[in-house]
Amino acid sequence: SSASTPIRATLFPGDGIGPEIADSVKQIFQAADVPIEWEEHYVGTEIDPRTQSFLTWESLESVRRNGVGLKGPMATPIGKGHRSLNLTLRKELNLYANVRPCYSLPGYKTRYDNVNLITIRENTEGEYSGLEHQVVRGVVESLKIITRQASLRVAEYAFHYAKAHGRERVSAIHKANIMQKTDGLFLKCCREVAEKYPEITYEEVVIDNCCMMLVKNPALFDVLVMPNLYGDIISDLCAGLVGGLGLTPSCNIGEGGIALAEAVHGSAPDIAGKNLANPTALLLSGVAMLRHLNLHDKAELIQKAILNTIAEGKHRTADLGGSSKTTEFTQAIIDHL
Ligand code: NAD
């Protein structure tokens, strides 16, 4: 209850629409009496030599200390001599798995009504290792790194998640017929972990076939686990199945149990500062954070209020075909609590 000691969580409002949607989260959490005390951190205006990026050392320490956080979108400033903000977070906090639940929102009609799947993306290596170079003029090379350690770690997380959430099946997505060594090792690790979970059905699906199956009938899948690049693409495909980037939450899982929830969309500079952004994705990310903290009653309360507001249809933001401002939509959710 709100009378007990509040739990500290880090909040990165982020750039562009970030502060507007973060305000919405803060207001709704407060109205729902969520026992959380936010430690707010903004992206710095100059490079912090300790992180080699615009992210301050203090903000990273805050996440490490609290173990949980919520992150708005961050726009990485263009220029040399610093690291991408999201990459810095991923590396420094060892955020090895990106988890994205994708489910149909009742009352918001899309092509499918019955989407309920989870994508789990390996987040530290693969094609995103940043190892690209020119071999000779006209020939470049990019290294895709797959390690046994990172593959086992993300596979373990996927099966653990499936079991903990009463899911029945884990599908490993791959292209091992072509990428025999790299995706081959990824699959081998998934198989090893699968053996420890006999109660969960394990299958392997080639990525091209997976895309076809997803758009034809998303109900064919349950939990999907995959290397970095495939995960980047498939998770956006899945977001599209349920209504787009304004709606989909995600959570990054790091070493030592860190959970940093974030909306999957960017800073939306085209609508920033205009009170037009849809806060749903960040709100549902906040809900995921509450579940991680075992605050299930509060999570349920807020999630229901969001879904009921959208289903009712009176207050929707422009991306969902409505004309409500961010603040009006936020107030409607508070009224539904
Ligand atoms: P974007 O997601 O910011 O915008 C794409 C489109 O979706 C825009 O038309 C935008 O108005 C709309 N949109 C996005 N979120 C919305 C919301 N909550 N409500 C209503 N409409 C929304 O993608 P972009 O334009 O490619 O990227 C802009 C900036 O964000 C770039 O600097 C990029 O690097 C950064 N970015 C950050 C993250 C992150 O922090 N995780 C992710 C993606 C992009």
TrEMBL record:
Molecular function (Gene Ontology), one example: NAD binding
Its GO CC terms are: mitochondrion
Task: Check the record and name the InterPro entries matching this protein.
Answer: IsoCit/isopropylmalate_DH_CS, Isocitrate_DH_NAD, IsoPropMal-DH-like_dom
Q: Which UniProt keywords apply?
A: Magnesium, Metal-binding, NAD, Oxidoreductase, Transit peptide
Q: Which residues form the Isopropylmalate dehydrogenase-like domain?
A: 8-333
What GO biological process terms are annotated to this protein in UniProt?
A: isocitrate metabolic process; tricarboxylic acid cycle
Q: Does Transport show up as a keyword for this record?
A: no
Q: Which cofactor does it need?
A: Mn(2+); Mg(2+)
Instruction: Respond yes or no to whether keyword Metal-binding is given for this record.
Output: yes
Q: Which Gene3D superfamilies does the protein's record reference?
A: Isopropylmalate Dehydrogenase
One Pfam entry for this protein is Iso_dh
Q: Which family does it belong to?
A: Belongs to the isocitrate and isopropylmalate dehydrogenases family.
Q: Spell out the subunit comment.
A: Heterooligomer of catalytic and regulatory subunits.
| Record's protein name | Isopropylmalate dehydrogenase-like domain-containing protein
What organism does the record attribute this protein to?
Answer: Cajanus cajan
